[in-house]
UniProtKB/TrEMBL annotation, chain A:
Pfam families listed in its UniProt record: Glyco_tranf_2_3
Family of the protein in this entry: Belongs to the glycosyltransferase 2 family.
InterPro entries referenced in this protein's UniProt entry, alphabetically: Nucleotide-diphossugar_trans
Keywords: Glycosyltransferase, Membrane, Transferase, Transmembrane, Transmembrane helix
Organism: Gryllotalpicola kribbensis
This protein's record includes keyword Glycosyltransferase: yes
Keyword DNA-binding belongs to the record: no
Name assigned to this protein: Glycosyltransferase family 2 protein
Transmembrane segments: 6-30, 324-347, 367-389, 401-424
Length: 459, 184
């Protein structure tokens, strides 16, 4: 077999593996049935909200949480904010016994989101009575701008979630709160505003279809991944992880997915809650979006250190271990694809150029590939936007749906940029990240507080 | 002697057997790739034999070329190239089954059944593609051949390959019953 044939064969096999994965996530997603609610009063609920410089959003978040979830205590972890976050929360805490402030100061502060959550876990342990029923206590992690759906605790208390004693953690679906905001960038106009709106819509499609479908498959393989927002964990499960690995949350850049791995390694199930959701701000800025995705991708790559533990674990199902391995190796496969696909094209073109008839003949004889490319290279992405339009956000005509479909296919190419950046950072050992700003902080009229050096992220 | 003591050697032996089979499957995949020319010759013989009742005239293999329409006014041959060969479809399944057996204690029998089913599907799909291409050539000429070979045939093979991958995974991972920590 020649080198060219080997590359083409490899590209074909990778394509089929990808298409197989698409089929495997699509079918359970389309066939899923609604989950039953449970009784939230059967559990104690503690919401952890890690914050750094969140004065723009924290009061609204507190209002929502205490109003929508009268059973829950809210723990705000202030990670050495330089704005008025801590003061605002402190005032609210003095007036409401269900609101708690955990203040962290440098040099202990700003060690990452995992460290902030571990601080809240310690504070909660200090606050809870010794005889607290930790099996019936659930920790909910919500971002400072997170908007948990009012039915979240009902779904989390359901028979498939914490109503099942084998469930250790659950992840709510994620929606974009600004998906229908026609002007997602404060003060921007024209093309920039249109582009920001496009990016926001694409992120909503991504989370509510593709990622949701991946989670639905994981529901079957018992390998649901946890996210950083809308994450539920049984306190007793966190105790088990802390007992085995010192702290519940760890240092990967994808500390939420990492927690999910620990939950499963400890012998508990993660479940996915598609019938409730947490809404968060989508990023309308290309640079910020690529930075966020690079961090997630690098975090995923870092999690490959758990592969051997997963393979040897008796607590992972075989299907779960294979799914988790595929998920962790996906960035590396994609990285290989960034080299492989252009190489296959160039080799084919070069062969065409030196063949009798030259490039023109080659183009004419290879035109048959185009419909196949549409079917295998465009449709697997575009179909998610069509599903989204039909099931989630039926706006405009079918032309809108088709526009979203083409847009979503093109949007997915960001992953090639992201995977290359993440790999370079991984190789260079660069782990520091700036906090992602809230959109309100970009408003032209707002006076941004002086930024202190920021080493680690708290989303 | 406890039950555990009785079961442990059996488990170790079972795992050793799985690892040996896994290595054999990976070695077989490598061998198929190394001997793909000879494999294509065999494939041409099988294709010629199976196509014979369905095409006009006789069929005959010559190396990796399948001749059909022998004894008629139009004798045609198509060559089974490396990229058209079933080797490209079966080898990844063998390697995947081997790798899965190496890294996880899967039920050996189920993996082999899944592999057999998957390999059977891709082989059948590829042979059907050869057959349909030959019939299309005789019925509609080179346009028919192009349509079946490039479009319908490719789609058939891709669909078959996807089904094979999914079934291999399904067989290999079915009925896994993990222990669930203190709740098990």
């Amino acid at each position: 077999m020649t080198a060219s044939e080997s590359l083409q064969a490899l590209a074909f096999v990778m394509l089929v593996i990808f298409l197989s994965y698409v089929c495997m996530i699509l079918v359970p997603f389309l066939r899923r049935k609604r989950d039953e609610d449970g009784d939230p009063a059967a559990f104690a609920w503690h919401v952890f909200v890690p914050c750094r410089d969140e004065e723009a959003v924290i009061e609204d978040t507190l209002d929502r949480l205490v109003t929508d979830f009268p059973l829950a205590h809210v723990w705000i972890v202030d990670d050495h904010s330089t704005d008025a976050t801590a003061e605002l929360v402190s005032m609210r805490a003095s007036a409401d016994a269900r609101i708690h402030l955990v203040r962290r100061r440098l040099p202990e502060a700003r060690q990452g989101k995992g460290a902030a959550l571990n601080a809240a876990y310690r504070a909660l342990n200090g606050w809870l009575p010794a005889d607290a029923d930790r099996d019936h206590t659930v920790i909910v992690v919500v971002d400072a701008d997170g908007q948990l759906a009012p039915n979240a605790l009902h779904q989390a208390a359901g028979p498939r979630a914490f109503g099942d004693p084998t469930t250790g953690a659950a992840q709510a679906a994620v929606w974009m709160s600004n998906r229908n905001d026609d002007r997602p960038i404060p003060g921007a106009r024209g093309l920039r505003q249109w582009w920001g709106h496009y990016l926001v819509r694409m992120q909503d499609i991504e989370f509510r279809t593709t990622i949701a479908a991946m989670q639905c498959l994981r529901g079957h393989t018992l390998s649901v991944g946890l996210g950083g927002n809308g994450q539920f964990t049984r306190l007793a499960t966190l105790d088990a992880i802390a007992g085995a690995a010192d702290t519940p949350w760890h240092g990967s850049l994808l500390e939420d997915y990492e927690l999910g791995i620990h939950v499963m390694l400890a012998g508990f199930r993660n479940v996915y809650l598609h019938d409730t959701h947490v809404a968060q701000e989508a990023l309308p800025f290309t640079g910020k979006l690529l930075t966020q995705r690079t961090r997630w991708c690098q975090g995923g790559m870092q999690c490959t250190k758990y592969l051997s533990q997963i393979f040897f674990s008796r607590n992972f199902t075989n299907a779960g271990a294979i799914e988790a391995a595929y998920f962790m190796l996906m960035p590396f496969l994609q990285l290989a694809g960034t080299v492989l696909w252009p190489l296959v094209f160039l080799i084919s073109a070069a062969q065409g150029a030196i063949a009798p008839g030259g490039l023109e003949t080659w183009l004419a004889t290879t035109a048959w590939v185009v419909p196949l490319m549409l079917l295998t290279g465009v449709l697997p992405f575009a179909l998610w936007a069509l599903i989204y339009w039909k099931r989630d956000e039926r706006r405009g005509s079918i032309l809108t749906a088709l526009g979203w479909a083409v847009g979503y296919w093109l949007y997915m190419y960001q992953s090639y940029v992201v995977v290359i950046r993440a790999f370079v950072r991984l190789v260079l050992g660069r782990n520091g990240w700036s906090k992602t700003k809230r959109i309100a902080e970009y408003a032209p009229q707002s006076a941004a507080p002086a930024a202190a050096p920021q080493l680690e992220v708290v989303r | 002697m406890s039950t555990v003591a009785l079961n442990r050697p059996a488990r170790v032996a079972g795992r050793a057997a799985s690892v040996l089979v896994a290595l054999a499957l990976i070695a077989l995949a490598a061998t198929l790739l190394a001997l793909q020319e000879q494999f294509r010759d065999v494939e041409a013989r099988v294709a010629a034999f199976l196509m014979d009742p369905f095409v006009h005239g006789g069929t005959a293999p010559a190396g990796s070329i399948v001749w059909f329409g022998l004894g008629t006014q139009q004798v045609t041959g198509f060559q089974i190239t490396t990229l058209c060969s079933t080797v490209i479809l079966v080898t990844p399944l063998l390697a995947a089954a081997g790798l899965m057996l190496l890294v996880r204690p899967l039920a050996l029998g189920r993996v082999l059944v899944g592999l057999a089913v998957g390999a059977g599907i891709v082989t059948l799909c590829n042979l059907l593609r050869y057959g349909f291409a030959a019939i299309a050539m005789q019925t509609w000429g080179s346009d028919g051949f192009e349509l079946v070979h490039r479009y319908l045939g490719s789609l058939l093979v891709i669909a078959g390959f996807i089904a094979a991958v999914i079934l291999l995974l399904r067989f290999a991972t079915m009925r896994s019953t993990p222990q669930r920590g203190r709740h098990s």
